[in-house]
Amino acid sequence: MASKTLVVNEAGICLSYIDSGAPSASPYVTIFAVHGMCFTNLIFKKVAKIFSDKGFRFVAVNRRNFRGSSPYTAEELAELNTGNDEQKHDWLRSRGHEFANFIAKFIQLNSLPQITPDNRSGGSVILGWSAGVSLSIAALSNVESLSKDVQDCLSAHLRAFIAQEPAPLALGLPSPTKNWAPLRETSIPEGLRFKAFAHWITSYFDHGDISKQDFDSLSYVLASPLRPPSIYNMSTAETDEMLQLDQKSTTDLPFFINLANQLKAAYRKVFFDSATAELLPKMRITFVAGTMGPAFSPAGLWAVENDEKEAKTGRVNYKVVPGANHFVHWDDPEKAVEVYLECIDL
């Protein structure tokens, strides 16, 4: 799958993507996937191939500042790092509009089929993984401020939103007090922190029973010896094409930290707001978490579960995947596809 680009607004901002192509039979379902930190859209290439073989279309997008997509301007970075609340709100809304416009333009340019009357095929799915959940909620929380034709397109096409293992930070929520990650560990030389992060985040961790919501039962630092980190299942050529550890990829941390209030508002609007649900009436929401990912994975799951109990909406579905780490779509792509299909609920 060759990388392509699509211009998403009048400013000339473009997003890079890979596309498995239209299946031979129609109607079909299209999945729009968004990657996390450090790993580009090519991390989805295994599940893209399986979905294609099953008659789906799979489109994986690179976020701004990642290969092929438009870098942030100096003005955008200044607003992200030092802007006031209004500028930060506008910043997140702009990123959301870019992704929403990408989906709508792709749907229109490729004449993607709408959801069929029996709900058994057609339509589109947003799959946000890790940091990609932040961009997904930025798009979905700002539907009402999009043009009417884009609103109508998304309303008719979006059948599911899969939020796969976002850290609490990706939802604008505070990290647990025991949280640990190599990116903030000053004992690791600064030049090695992103490389250490790539090893740590792809590891497996032996947690206790995550249904008990016990932070003391989580393994924060030490990886499990039961299975090697996913990065050891990648060739040098694959890590060269999938990993982006340069300065451009470091914008994710200020994104989470500086826009915490804006991200929290976006998250709550997508997951619990009835007005947003009315704008996207066919969209089913599922939160996916493995039992062996980094500690931020169950922490994110628990945060959403508890927020939903308080909100009393009953709109969010949950899928806990035994034995899965943060990279189930790489290590166990068949299992990942099975889980995603359950979330789509065809």
How would you describe this protein?
Residues 33-337 form the AB hydrolase-1 domain. Keywords: Hydrolase. This is Alpha/Beta hydrolase protein. By secondary structure, the protein is α/β, with parallel strands linked by helices. It has one domain: Alpha/Beta hydrolase fold, catalytic domain (Rossmann fold), CATH 3.40.50. The protein is 39% helix and 13% strand. The protein has helices at 45-53, 74-82, 85-109, 132-140, 148-157, 193-201, 236-242, 252-258, 260-272, 274-279, 296-311, 328-331, 333-344; strands at residues 4-7, 14-19, 30-34, 57-61, 124-129, 158-164, 284-290, 316-321. The protein has an 8-stranded mixed beta sheet with strand order 1-2-4-3-5-6-7-8, sandwiched between helices. Helix 1 (45-53) links the parallel strand 3 (30-34) and strand 4 (57-61). Helix 1 packs across helix 13 (333-344), helix 3 packs across helix 5 (148-157) and helix 4 crosses helix 9.
